[in-house]
Records
---
Amino acid sequence: MSLLELRDVEVVYQRSDGTPVPAVVGASLDVNRGEIVGLVGETGCGKSSLARAAVGLVSTTRGSVIFEGREVHVLGRRARPASERRLQLVFQNPYESINPRRTVGAQVADAFAISHAQPRSSFRARVEHLLQRVGLPETMARRFPHQLSGGQRQRIAIARALAADPAMIVLDEPLSALDASVQAQVANLLVELARDLHVGMLLISHDLAIVRHVAHRTAVMYLGVIVETAPTDELWKAPKHPYTQALIDSIPHADGAGHLPVALPGEIPDPANPPSGCRFHPRCPRVMEMCRSEVPRLVAKDGGREVACWLHDKPPVFQQSADVPRVSP
Amino acid sequence: MKPLLSVRDLRVWLDTARGPLSIVDGINFDIASGQVFGLAGESGSGKTITALALLGLLPAGARAAGSAMLDGRDLLTMRAAQRRRTRGREIAMVFQDPTSSLHPMLTIERQLTEHLRYQLGMSREEAYERAVHLLTDVRIPNPRAALRGYPHQFSGGMRQRIQIAIGLACEPRLLVADEPTTALDVTVQAGILRLLHRLCEEKDLAVMLITHDLGVLSALADTVTVMYAGRVVESGSTAQVMGGSRHPYTRALIDSLPHPEASDGALVPIAGDPAGPESRPSGCAFHPRCRYMEPSCAAAVPSLVRMDDGREMACPLDPLVVSRVR
């Protein structure tokens, strides 16, 4: 049994005129203890919605979210059940997720107070220990958030999540607001924490390159569906889904060679009105006739890879491939 | 070749109660037509302020000195009226966030043609036809329909294309693009980079590309200048600076990036945080974070020296020693 299991999760929002907007359409994903799973995709692909569903911040219309063997409750007016405090979330912007008017130490202590029934005075040593754990000096506890840099603030946000002694942390774009030189520090911290504290992590990011260094497994999402999942190295070395390939090709390399990255034509379609068949087919460079009408299934391949593409699946009917010329016997 | 824009000893400072606070500390660069000049640096390095100083858009309290010659005229000492004319017609700007630089309640047509009518005195009909042409040029599908639309009806990538079209309306000679793709997805970013590359070649446009993203610079820029804490640390051709950096800061910055080809475990971060204007270390501002630091680094500001291969670098350490230690 995995630590966090997402099964066929569907998240549907409503526009003001009542049109349903399916942001996530049947996504399944597992995260184990000590494992970092990256979830990548373009803006509007539903990765943040899936992350929010994973911690119960939005309600799912179908499917299930199981954490440590129990269904995750959708957050309502009541306090979160104690069983779910070990499931934590870190937001993108450390400038907005931290209270500017209270000291850093007090805010980390809050997180202790919520999860441990002990007098507040006993927290001080633990706060200092936790600050050290995320690579900050213990004197930082007396500072206010505006006295910290972006990287330090993101460390505080991570320390707050760690105060609840979590088994699982969902991180929504934790690195994208940081400077390049600082991004690497925080990325390495995540790897250390997952390894040393045996915490599972679901890392949401649009930056495939950084996910490559951090995540053990990576899932690629497009317009509400997961199109490919594989061990991160495999995914990079041999992407199977044309969308994964397109994402990798569009990353510019800082090597001074002056190669322009390859642009993917078109735009991500409106999720309220998705294309028929494979949702990627209008932008796919290897589109075949059947892609326009038949929805590809996520099929398990060797080496723990799953891919939803007709190029890598036996079609239910006679295959008609546009790009592979058929040689008659 | 004579450069289009020549910036010499540009200094920008803020007058505060405790005296002047230096933000940009004497930088030089040239931008040639048909070329992309890349200005790299982390937050607080002064790269955006440099652009704002050239455009005469510095925030209140900030002042600039030095010279910035565009065709024999100094942008820094120009009268306000002349500067407004230059800014609209010869220099155009594209900012990071197209959502905040486009007016949400005016149609695209209004925002595109206003510029043409005010700066070039075109009639309504002429301006409309030119607007259609401009949108076609930046590859907006169905430009006539797009002109009737409002910004919120377009995606981030399309809004950035529209912003570029507005910038190009008066056929400027210099386009200043400040983090033009930072808010966009990589797939969309690739399209904008290709667009800028094509415009630069077709229209002999000079582009000043300001970004912290070394990948973007590497893809698009012909020459690169790297700033740290208000000073230039290394500058040269893109192949020199990105492909074979010699300054410890540039080197460390490139090493800290996730490498797309090889992933062998942990990234190599630079310790500490980038130095902001109010907390600049003495001497070489990078010395507290530098792994080759020597006592002398804290004492004097290293001067920018031309190296044997033509690049300029501000580090007294023998660059070959640095590369050998690596």
Note: Residues 250 and 281 of chain A are 18 Å apart (CA to CA).
---
Amino acid sequence: MDRKRLIVLLVLSLFLMAADNEDQELFERAALGEREQLLRARIDTLKREQDFLLFQKAMYETDSRYLIINITEKTGQLKYRNRVLKGFTFVPSKNFPGEALATGVLVLKKKEERKGDRPVLVLGKALVIQWKRAYVPPAEAGIPYITLTKKEMVSLFVALEEGAMAYIVQ
Amino acid sequence: MGKILESTSTAGKHIDTMPDMRSKSIMQRSYKISIKPFPLVLLALFLMLPPAARSQSSPFAVPLDEFRSRVKDLQQQATWLDEENKGLRRMLKDLEDDALYLVVDTENNRLTMRQGNDVVHTAVCGTGSRQFIEEETGRNWYFETPIGSFTVLGKERNPVWIRPDWSYVEENMPIPPENDPDRFVRDVMGKYALLLGNGYKIHGTKWTTLLGTHFTHGCVSLGDDDLELVYKAVTIGTKVYLY
């Protein structure tokens, strides 16, 4: 009988030890999982930051004017190399995607100034910069836009050439 | 039913072809089993053991060591990116400076004096009229303020305007010889002028009511107070950006 008890005790202690080991592993896995998530988020942030820094570095060495558009703050800058030529604020459209508009580079694809209409800058299918617009072509109907004051819009329209870069930051 | 019982009673013959019947017949038999509790307790305990303790293989999709190594790699990647970004920021900072610079918005006729991201002063100015004139000989001029990056090449006090040919053409006057005294005109460019090259300047004007419009022959005109402030603030070498 004593021998049986001893075996039961041994098995029980084995069980408890194994359970304790598993608890430790679970705890470590949870900590590692949390750390992994944090690191992935940090890496994403650092990659975005690096992308912006590389863009700035490239533009500092390029002889063309460009835009920095801050979606969160609803502000923008017209820049040439490392100099700010103009700062501006804007009002986003109702269908403005906010965070859905990815950070990164956009290219000014089209400058439009039709007779009787206002100047418009079309940055591909991602964004339109405008003052006011009497006519919106069907192809551009769904594109989110930002509205500037007349003076600012005219300045940008004159300052930027087709092919100019704009960088979206959140 | 009787047939079935018969076939099961001759066990072994139909096992492969009729397994259901066989099990049924086994259930019908009564066995005298002596159940000892100890092995059952052991079995129950074994079954209660955590899966990790029962087998060598981990119940998780990723083995712990691999998980640790993956997190370590991510940490390394984050550190490298951080270092690279620090280097890039340093590089950009080296390219930046705190020097004062001028920006002229030729569309809205505004001159802005800036330092980094800060606006130091804003002034209403005049820029090129965008008018075209042509001489009988075919020579022509278009009065537009140039766009681009310039540098203050010189600073003048009480500048003298040397009337160019277009000034006579514009007023239908005969063009005098190059060094004719009539060409040297005082008190039309204000008290100061900043030279940008190719005859373009930032200077004062007598027609202050026209400031804010396109009325010049290509130079940038400022009111007296703004001109004095800008003149005193900038040095030779100051960058001027016209757009």
Note: The domain at 64-169 of chain A is CATH 2.40.440.10 (L,D-transpeptidase catalytic domain-like).
---
Amino acid sequence: MYNELKTLKDIPEEDFLTGGSPTCSGCPAEMGLKMALKALGKNTIVVNSSSCMSLLCNYPYTPLKVPWLHSAIENAAATATGIVRALKILNRHSTVICYAGDGATYDIGIGSLSGMAARGDPVLYICYNNATYANTGGQWDTATPFLANTKTTPPGKYSKGNLIPPKNMIKIMGAHGIYAASASPAYPLDYMNKVRKAQAMNAPAYIEYFSPCVPGWGYKESLGVKVAKLATETCFWPLYEIENNKITINYKPTQMRPVKEFLELQDRYRHLTDYDISVIQGLVNSDWKELLGGESCKKT
Amino acid sequence: MLNEFLTGNEAVAWGAKLARTQYIPNYPITPQTEIIETLAQWQADGQLEADFCSMDSEHSVMSAAIGGSATGVRVFTATSSQGLELMHEMMYIASGLRLPIVMVNCSRGLSAPITLLCDHNDYLGLRDTGWIMINAQNNQEALDSTIMAFKISESKDVLLPSVVNMDGYVLSYTMEPTIVPSQSEVDRFLPPYRPSHAFLDTRKPMVQGVAALIPDDYTYFRKQVHKAQLNAKHVIEKTCVQWHKATGRHYGLVEKYMLEDAEIAIVTQGSISTTAKAEVQEMRKKGMKVGLLRLRVMRPLPKEEIRNTLKEMEGVAVIDKNLAPGLGGIAHSEIRDCLYDIEEQPIMSSFVMGLGGKTEEMKQFAQIVDMMKKDMIDKRGRVRFV
Amino acid sequence: MIEEHKIGYDGEKGVPVIRNMGNAIKVHTGLWRTDRPTIDYGKCIKCKLCYLYCPVTAYKWTKKGPICNYYFCKGCGICSEECPVKAISMVKEERC
């Protein structure tokens, strides 16, 4: 039971994130934090792991209007456990969320995240996925898509970019039996409603927010939302949620756009040939088919 | 007050319980596992009002401890060797955030190669982290130090986390007669934890864990940690006086044993001190002018006490149950530093012994004093592995 | 030239926290931009998308519609790109 936002007019006007941060111009990750805090309200504590967003609170300035704790890169989930348990001891209730990057979530922090989900601590873990270690300049991590150009998987004479397909963290977290969902800035109502749904559950939850990165992906800074929209329209980044191990797809495009439209907006795919693009299209098609199959299986 | 027969692990668990710890994140590792198992059983029987939270790694344990302490509750945890090394990154963060967490370390030698038995390398790796370091020589002191550590850490003049070290196996698994103070005694000594410097409350929001990219700001905060450590010296002394009033048991920054007219001093840390003291007694009976200085607090290093005690000596034998490869004994170089400015410096020798849990026998200390005498004749301090 | 600093113990003030929440509004990130958004209120349908999307919360929502706080606006252009009726256009910033 949660207060669903039906239209843009229902969006609360109070903001918990001000301007004045040293984030990149047009940063979708900052947008994601702003939208999440809008949906959650004042009684929220944010735990951050070392990532682009850590630089929001650069002493002595902070744009936050809610409490914020940063400890290290791999332990946002474990730190949040400590906070949630301490609040219970102090007989206070606040929503505790983690706002961490994909590097901190997929790689170095997967242990503590899995521990938090397994223990059942009521933390909403929002991973903003820009598919690289963005804060250190844009290096490869296990969320980096196939054939993408990153600083540590650059294309060259003997390389085509990243040859390791990313792992599906949403399904991994869904397998823990918790609520796991994908989200996108291009579908803000869907994202904010998922955040509210997770908040109302008072149980561990995982939301992965698709966060294009202006310097990392190489696109014009005004196109952040458009890139995210194309990602969903091409089924590169489908919107779905997993609840009690059941997959529900939230948005099925009436016509699946060719993934080339998504790729051509970004410099990180500039080195691809038509053949490479067709390989990526094949991967997107098979992943989408698998997801559709995963949904219909559970319906019977 | 109860007269009990407790292992070191049980004694320390009593310390955590009596101090009314509120949150105990934990992870098992030999030889401290019995601490958390004792606490778990109490919690299951409704005898412990704390949140007992088993975590997925020691790194997560310290992260959760930081999260809990940053919110504003009293936190206790325990670990050893490899676990302590895994959480090493978080130790700096805990002291940098000024969170008064208390941790017990059951010292155990570090891998590789693997050992389960006691030495001090893991404990002494914490010297630069900003934690207050206290080394107990017996189970009674481990219990008392755990309770005192909360008071020291939570003092407004300090606000730093503390580690109480207890030798693995030698103390942790060995039963000794221990006096357990009553809850009311401890409540009178230790008030509840109500922080105003660091808490997470949506009614009064604050940001903890900031980026201080301007070097002057960063330097300022690091200097505050240093100042807090220096303050900790008098806070520890004051707390020991209060503990003495409450229970009659006396502790300090160092322990001086038969040093009044001594010519040779043996310097030790931890449980080997009790064996060494027994041998010092025997040597005194034979008329030898030997005494013992036990370094109870490693950080803040009690430079004045060390200098004032050892400057009268002609020979100082520093015993290190640890090894810094390429350097030698760790305590030896720290103690030497304290005696640098003296005009007539004693001859100082380093004895590295007891690594990997090798047991120290009483007669070995007599042999050490003999070797020390030889060094004093040669007027040359040496490093020896015994 | 180095000089010696003497710093005393500042107690709670020496703890690295920030209590002045939202004080980043003192940071003039508006100096970053090269293009500034201008709104045609005649076209605006008051859908709130620009207000919602702005990453630096530069827009304030009023009865008239969105009002941009140029002190923070970094000129990213997302508001202009996403406006469904193209009521926002990015105009070259003029500064000497």
Note: Chain B touches chain C through 25 residues (CB under 8 Å).
---
Amino acid sequence: MTVQDDITARLTEVFRDVFDDDELTVFPAMTAKDVDEWDSLMHITLVLAVEKEFAVKLNAAEVGKLENVGQMVELLARKAA
Amino acid sequence: MHGTADSAGGSKAAVARAKAALAAGDHAGAFAELRAAIRPQDDFTEQARIARAFAKVDADALDLRPLKVAVLAGSTVDHLADVLRFWLAASGFAAEIYLAPYDTVAQSVLDPASGLYGFAPQVVWLFSTHRDVGAAVEPGASAAEVEAAVDAAVAERTALWQALAERLDALVLQNNADIPADDPFGNLAGAAPWGLRTALRLYNARLVAAAPAGVTVFDLDHVAGLWGRARWTDPRYWHHSKHAFALDATGTVAAAAARLLAGAMGLARKCLVLDLDNTLWGGVIGDDGVAGIALGTGADGEAFVAFQRHVKALKERGVILAVVSKNEEAAARAPFESHPDMVLRLDDIAVFRANWSNKADNIQDVAETLSIGLESLVFVDDNPAERDLVRRALPTVEVIELPEDPAYFVEALARAGCFEAVAFSVEDRRRAGYYADNAKRVELKRATVDMDGYLGGLAMVATVGGVDAFHLPRIAQLINKSNQFHLTGTRLTEREVERLASAGDTEVFHVRLADRFGDNGLIAVLILRRDGEDLHVDTWAMSCRVLGRTVEEFIANEILARARRRGCRSVVGRYVKSPKNALVAGLYDRLGFVPLDGDEDERRWSLAIADRPDGWKTHVRVETQETMKA
């Protein structure tokens, strides 16, 4: 399993928790449009949960730029490296 | 506070159990699961998880009081709203929350057709922060300019309150200004009359003075301080989305507001039910006896005294006290009647239940005796098993989660915020007296320029006594731990102190000091030895806390009196230099003793008793004088 796969699996758990949907599975091209509840407010809740899960702090610019799951995975992989 | 939720696993599991309860139609059970899994200080991810699960609970099924709350803010508070709804439920409300559109506070209040008035709230929370307060002035501005800016900022608020009062019969919750952590001027921001922190502090004080009935200040600055000012704001989320405080503080803010609203709406708790052993004192009274419990002496003894003081202060502001203890009644009462360090007395306790029945039954009996509901009670007990039993048997009783260390009892009880109030009611006579005392204290502190007046105003009363089972540990402790005010540096074991106390030529006495602000405890120990016509001061150790209050003079008078009673003609004082006791090198000179012999490392002074017929002037009055051993 690559680092990216591992991150994606953990992200799926975070998304399921935050959006309260046990069916949810994330994929790289997934954007806010793919999840009904993923609006700008939920985005912040999501980012905080991601920060907690991965024990990282994203900077203010990064928080705004995470438009899809693929970007999020890459960013987390970079932070973990 | 109910359970603890230290891990995400804890609250995730609780959410799963809550969902199962909901599936079975048990809304109360679901709510109880969620409530037990979260604390106000838990981070935002935890708060959001619990709030989201709570959104599925039918609040109408929980026997809560409906409450419509409008929140008007100049910052983003959407995340606060969901969490607030949960904490309001924990405080007894089924809340419906209206959020005015972002940064439309004035428009919402001033426009009679705004969504705010359509919502018809019972509570309007004006959620402002320091960023919404225009109290900043130019560096170097005069005091008058600062006051003008502050008054203008307060006037902006009063205008909103008035407009609200004209159109709504709602309680207004008005945030004060959270003092920001960082300022280009650093310390000067709070030290210069024109500094931003100075101005905001003045604003906070004037806001309170300006608030009419129906407007309550929410002390956001205090919440910020409690939570930790250095992390109170997270600039990332201010720049990104205009969140004015760190999202992880959301639970703390929401719970504090919810408790205050509970107080405002008459849902505050009324009665504190206390366990005794290891809650009000250390040890077990039935085993250890009155002289054996930890109270007043040593770190834990002092912690229990501090906790009792806090409880006593609650009583004085109108909280009813009750005792529920598994003990023989007579044993349980004994410390209240005869332990010198007990702060609480039997007449402070409205209902006293010491027996061997189960605590839930006893607590129910307390509620019935006082004719108040169980939802008015708060229970404090060091024993986790008792707490668990009461939580299960009487879910509406608030059970405080006490830490193991008694030093933290006060904060555990205080931060649970069970006794919040927005005003003081006429029937709370004792509460009025308490505030009156505080005002007197402030006046007295202001008058410190006049030293004699200050010392006289302290109303110091000393109790002089010998060596007994209560005082021996503290006497030995003072002799062995004092460094600065310790004339000869003597170190003695408890056994040696006892021996000196019972020997014919020596005597040991201690001094306790109380003043109008409280008991200072045992503050001085002296060992005197008679040698012919001389009375030698072999040991004089004193707590530095009472230095400069003419206690030394009081003690010198006491020495003189004892010398006279023994038929001595002079008192001989001795100073033995130690690395830390330079403070008292000149004590005997100051008292007018005459140098006798020695050098700077060890010196003796003498005082002829006939030369001091009137003793020394002191502001310390003696309470009772125990007869001295012959």
Note: The domain at 3-80 of chain A is CATH 1.10.1200.10 (Non-ribosomal Peptide Synthetase Peptidyl Carrier Protein; Chain A).
